[in-house]
Amino acid sequence: MPQVNACDFWRWLTTTLRGASSHLLEPNQLPCFTSPTKKGSGMDQTTSDQNLHKFLRFKTNGRDATHARLLALDFANHYTQNKWSLKRWKGHPKFTITWERAAGGKAADGTPLMEKVTSKPFNQSVIERAIKTEGSGFIGALNLPELRPNWLDASIPIFMGFHHVDPDGGTVKMQVDPSLGPKFPLRPMLDREGVMEVSFQKSLLLNIAEQRKQAVDVSRLGTTNPWGFLTTLRTLTSEAVTMIDNTLHQLYFKAQYDPLPMWKFDEVALGPRHGSRIMEKLKWVYAITGVHLDARDQTAAFGFIKAVRNHFAHMDPPCMCITMEEAADWLNKIRVVGELNWKIRQAIGVPPSLALVELLMQPEVEFVPIYPMNRRIPQPPTVGYKAVCEEALARASSTKGKSSAPETDGLLAIAPTRGV
Fold it and tell me: What is the pTM of this model?
């Protein structure tokens, strides 16, 4: 199979298509869209992949200014226990807060030694500037404590790397409290090599932020890992849906076993946890807290990402097709799903987590064609994901038996490899 670079590929494609409206090619007739590695050059194939054109990029090298402003408003109100608007915060004198943190070591009575810390002076605009420059590190820059409700965010993976048996047959055990109240019946426990975690908020949000960056980085077509981009999108959509599902179930169990003041838990009204559509579970927020979930745009983006996740998970229909323009839109919708997590937190009355800040502060993604000066047309509904989604299958079924010739103008068809 010949290897060509991007420019040579497009010359080949233009020459191949010239004078004909439709072509049927075997996959082994297509050139490999990679940069050739010169023998003895010391350049491995991974380095060669890095030389390929990236079709996606972040719009700016900085952080998202709009999210920074609103995150700063949320944090400023939580730190000062206010509910002020941006207008009221504008030009307001700065606050300081004093809090305690572990100093290391223990006192004579066995309690941990603590030290008092005073924050730097802050108001909404000070926090906003710090978030723009430091991201989730703004708390360190301003000597502020991490606002972390234990029942929702306090977790890291806990590992046990040994199995010890006493002479009497007993074992050393590790147990972690899920922080969902003393009545919650489950207590994760290990007595041998393993890992446990009780809240996946941090790990899910950080992984989504990392995978989103990874999707931009691997948006090179024709690399030595042709499945890398699709695999990243598949993982990303799955993690995004799981993150919302996880948040709703944490809310459910907290309301059931250790509700906050003014919360209400009606198991019949909430409906079953299993077998219910996740879009219906979003109604749990109002049913439990009495606060409406004001998230129309975020819910719409989540519904779309969930449909894509289902397609990736079940491969039903059994084909996939994505333009890079659509991929950019999907990655931006992923961040909007992060906003849905934030909206749920606002309804519950808890602040954004630092992991959520990392996701929300990522810039938007945009498509970058190889030849930006070339003419482009709007993407038609017969191209990309719109050609393979469930709605496309329904449209095709509804027109069954009617005379509707498939689009063939300028079509380059690729035939499956024939078996023996």
Answer: 0.84
